[in-house]
Amino acid sequence: MSTPLGLDPDELVACVACGLCLPHCPTYRVTNLEIASPRGRIAAMRAVEQGVVPLDGVFVRAMEECVQCRGCEAACPSGVPFGHLMEGARAALASQPIADARRSPLARRATERVALSWVLTRHRVLLTLTWLLWAAQHVHLVPRRLGVPRLRAADLRTPLTAPSGDATADAWLFTGCVMDAWQRGVHRAALEVLGAVGVRASRPGPGGDCCGALHVHSGRRDEARKLARRVIDSMPGTAPIVVDAAGCGAALRDYGHLLGTEEAAAFAARVRDFSEYAVSQGAAEHLVATGERVVVQDPCHLRHVQKAHPAVRDLLGRAYRLAETADDGLCCGAGGAYSVQQPALAQSIRARKAGALREAGADADTVVCSANPGCTFHLAAAGFVVEHPAELAARALSREPVSRPT
Hints:
Elements: H1 9-12, H2 26-31, H3 38-49, H4 57-64, H5 71-75, H6 82-95, H7 106-119, H8 123-138, H9 153-157, E1 171-174, H10 178-182, H11 184-196, E2 201-202, H12 213-217, H13 221-234, E3 241-243, H14 246-253, H15 255-259, H16 262-269, E4 271-273, H17 274-280, E5 293-296, H18 300-305, H19 310-316, E6 321-324, H20 338-341, H21 343-359, E7 367-369, H22 373-380, E8 386-387, H23 389-395
Parallel strand pairs: 1-2, 1-3, 3-4, 5-6, 5-7, 7-8
Helix pairs in contact: 11-23, 17-19
């Protein structure tokens, strides 16, 4: 029998409402509302599936206000796949009429549609708009609070040196959409670090522009599947796929679940976070001590989904004096497009993270290290100096010639 949300019944009943997830949920921490917790959201999903409550604007708001950090999954003793439940609920909402008018404003839905369907998936359009944004920044028309990074014409004008679509390379570097437009310097740093240990990397071929992460988060699964197939075709073979954006890496690693094919599962198994892969190739041994203090901020999709966050410490520990926050990796509030869609909640969540970063020693002279563009932009808008692990590693590279480990 079909249900309003079409969620997996086994996943839906896995939650025993123990409450151990509550301290790890950023929206619950800032609101103290049960409906803003993983436990409360799952209860709401069950009620809708069972026909106890309607699929209405109240339910929509509860689903949309989730930042999808998946910190609850790491804390859950029952292994509830909350991320899959949330993605399924949002996919259902994207395809069904809602019982009342209390849903996302029309203007926001239209903007989201244009961004996801016409900008992120068309890289030339994104780059053109990025040039316009650079021009607006140049004449001081873009407020810092918006979190847009300081764009540089040299970065936009100069392409990456790595070849495109080279199936004979040692590894692929997934360049993505926003990262290639707004943080191309991170890709350059990643290529420099990989090249220093003898790894010959290639960029994806045609179709490897957007991973579909934001589409999945927004419930646009069909669009996400189309993008996933394009990405898989853009990086054939068996070479590792190195990803320097935590959100993109988590999305690529979930292609097996998204597409449900053996090919997609095999592709997902090849995905490695940049720090994870760099450490495996011996890059940490070729960094020199800088004496600089760095506060580490774990992006949620690196820590809770990929579980690859220890590699950042393994890569940078020799070169920098690393400091940790005491908040157990709580979300910063970026959440992909969440900081734009839910600005009030995102800023309240960020305020907690900012406090934890300052307690750990982050100040005007201390860099915060983060491996995800959304976190970087969101924290930079709060006044922090944020750099990617690849940038920090490239800066600490020994300039002595090295050989790749066998």
